[in-house]
Amino acid sequence: MRLIRRRPLLVTVLLCALAVLAARPSDGDGVHAPGHGSGTGVSAQVARLYEQAAVATRQYEAGQRAAGKQRAEAQRLEKLLDRERREIAVLREDLGRLARSQYRDGGGLPLTAHMILADDPEELMRGQRVFSQANLALDNALEKSARAESRLARDEAKAAAAWKKLEQRNQQLADLKRGIEQKLETARWKLQGQADASVAAGSCRGAVRLDQPRMNFANPWVAPVETYELSASYGSGGARWANRHTGQDFAVPIGTPVRAVGTGKVVKVSCGGAFGIEIVVQHAGGYYTQYAHLASVAVDQGEHVTPGQWIGQSGTSGNSTGPHLHFEVRVTPEMGSAVNPVSWLAQRGVPL
Question: For a Cys-Cys bond, which of 161, 173, 232, 314 suits 249, CB 3.0-4.6 Å?
Fold first, then answer.
């Protein structure tokens, strides 16, 4: 009888416990959940802003090229305007000469006065013809001068309006570019903060799937980043390394998309130690490539990758003095078997 009485109570307790668990707010998908959590939003935002900044930069540079062309066009128009101004000055001089000539010849007297003062009617008629021709020339010169001055004013206004419009457009592009870059810089360091937290915990957040634009590569091998400056080279010495530098560093901003240099399989994704967040990819022929000091990863261990595929975003995690990608080529998955990555890529048609 006791057992029968307790069973409804046990069922009630279990149902309440399930209800409480179901009602608890979610605290994310965990540090190992791929493609989810707060890190996903920041990584995607950085990637999106990265592309927007690239587009804004291209538009700004195109605007600067257009400004150069407009500047050349303005100089050409200025030469034409100078010629028009000289022509107008000549016309004004002609008008002055005609006016002075008429004044000397009595051009201001009425025809009746000329008839009274004239000694010879034929001479009077000849004088009147000359006078009429002079008046016609003066009228034509005045009309030509007025047209030239009107054209000059119109051309000057057109040139000034075109230049003002171009300057306004370039200023808008500059402001847009600067605004995107400021947002990108803020998002980059937020992403780096999350990367540092992952490294400190020794646990990766998981793959963050990024929307990569469609690309076609003619070469089966590519550089690990698209735009870069080479910094510390393979074999160089320094206090940061126990012996010699085992890879090639690419100086790139935080959040720069990092690409698989060729077809391969991800054999390691790690988020602790001196390399910070790192990825190791196995390629045919017994070679492995390492991508270290990342801010995020976009692939999972065991995943197959293709040339140029985004596998992560650069950062400055681990033992790093500043934002860069540490790229290494090895003959084993682990340290101590590195080869010169620059010559290795060059042999595959990728000069750095």
Answer: 232
